[in-house]
Design brief:
Layout lengths: L9 E9 L5 E10 L4 E5 L6 H8 L7 E6 L2 E2 L3 H6 E4 L11 H11 L4 H14 L15 H13 L5 E5 L7 H16 L3 E5 L3 H7 L2 E6 L2 E6 L1 H8 L4 H10 L1
Parallel strand pairs: 3-8, 3-9, 6-7, 7-8
Antiparallel strand pairs: 1-2, 1-4, 4-5, 9-10
Helix pairs in contact: 3-4, 4-5, 8-9
This protein binds adenosine-5'-triphosphate (ATP) and magnesium ion.
C-alpha cells in the first residue's frame, strides 16, 4: 500500500446503485484508493465491478453516495480528464481507423490536433499498432483491438487508469506485454484500478485487492494480508473461501 498523504486518487462513500428495473447492484460501497496505488477489484460475474467503474466514470446515475477523483466530484470536467477508461466491452467506432480513433479521442479531451497526432504516433509505437494505423477497427484482430482500447484510454495521459478486464481473451504473449506496460505506467506514478478474473494476475500486479460480491465489499487488503486473514495458501484459496461465506 502506498504511504502517500496526498489527496486520494479515488474516494467512494456509501455508493449505492439501484438500476431502473429495481436491481440493487451496489450497496453502501465505501473505498479509498491512494494516489499512485495499483489496485485490484475481484469478484464473480455479476458482482458489480463494471457497475462500480461506470459509476466512477459518471457513465451511469448513482442512487446514493459520493464519488471523488483526486478531490474532484466525479461529474466535473477535471475529474473526467484525470481518468482513462478501458471498458470491458470493446467499444471502438467501426468507421474510424486506428490513428483516427486515437486522434479523435485526444480531441474530445481538449488536446490540440498537433499534440494528438504526436501522442497517437507514440501510442501506436508502444502498442505495436503502427503498421495498422490506417486500418479500420473491424479489420483488427481481437488482441489488436484490446491494445487499441488501452492506447485510447492513455491518449490524454490520465492520472488514473481504470482497466476492466484488459486481458480477457488475449494470448499469453500479449498478456505479458500488457503487464509490462501497465507496470511501467504504475512506476511512472499513474494510479491503476484493474479488474480481472485471473487471480494470479491480481496477485502478481496489485498492491491492494478488494473482494466484491453481490454489490458489497467483502474485504480489502494486500494479497499477503488477505492470505493471512483467510488462512489461505494462495489468492485463489482466499477467493474460494471468501465467496463461499
Ligand atoms: N442496465 C442494467 N439494468 C439492470 N441490471 C443491470 C444493468 N447493468 C448491470 N446490471 C446487473 O447488475 C449486476 C452487476 O453487473 P456488473 O456488470 O456490474 O457485474 P461485473 O462484476 O462487472 O460482472 P462480470 O465479471 O461478469 O463483468 C448484474 O446482476 C447485472 O445483471
Ligand atoms: Mg464486468
Amino acid at each position: 500500500m502506498t504511504t502517500s498523504t496526498s489527496t486520494p486518487a479515488l474516494e467512494l462513500r456509501g455508493l449505492t446503485k439501484r438500476y431502473d428495473d429495481g436491481f440493487l447492484a451496489l450497496e453502501d460501497f465505501s473505498l479509498t484508493v491512494s494516489d499512485g496505488e495499483f489496485f485490484g477489484l475481484l469478484g464473480p460475474n455479476g458482482a458489480g465491478k463494471t457497475t462500480l467503474i461506470s459509476a466512477i466514470c459518471n457513465l451511469i446515475r448513482t442512487t446514493a453516495g459520493e464519488i471523488e477523483i483526486f478531490g474532484h466530484h466525479h461529474s466535473t470536467l477535471e475529474a473526467r480528464r484525470m481518468i482513462g477508461l478501458a471498458e470491458q466491452d470493446i467499444n471502438l467506432d467501426r468507421f474510424l481507423n486506428v490513428e483516427e480513433t486515437l486522434i479523435y479521442h485526444g480531441g474530445y479531451y481538449g488536446m490540440s490536433r498537433a499534440d494528438a497526432r504526436i501522442r497517437a504516433k507514440e501510442m501506436m509505437e508502444v502498442f505495436d499498432l503502427s503498421s495498422k494505423a490506417q486500418t479500420a477497427a473491424p479489420k483488427l484482430s481481437g488482441g489488436m483491438r484490446r491494445r487499441l482500447l488501452l492506447a485510447r484510454a492513455l491518449m490524454h495521459e490520465p492520472r488514473m487508469v481504470i482497466l476492466d478486464e484488459p486481458t480477457a481473451g488475449v494470448d499469453f504473449e500479449l498478456r505479458m506485454e500488457l503487464w509490462r506496460y501497465i507496470r511501467r505506467l504504475h512506476r511512472g506514478g499513474t494510479t491503476i484500478v484493474l479488474t480481472t478474473h485471473y487471480l494470479e494476475e491480481a496477485e502478481e500486479l496489485c498492491e491492494d485487492i478488494a473482494l466484491i460480491r453481490d454489490g458489497r465489499l467483502l474485504a480489502r487488503d494486500s494479497a499477503a494480508g488477505l492470505r493471512a486473514s483467510y488462512g489461505a495458501d494462495s489468492l485463489a484459496d482466499v477467493y474460494v473461501k471468501a465467496m463461499a461465506l
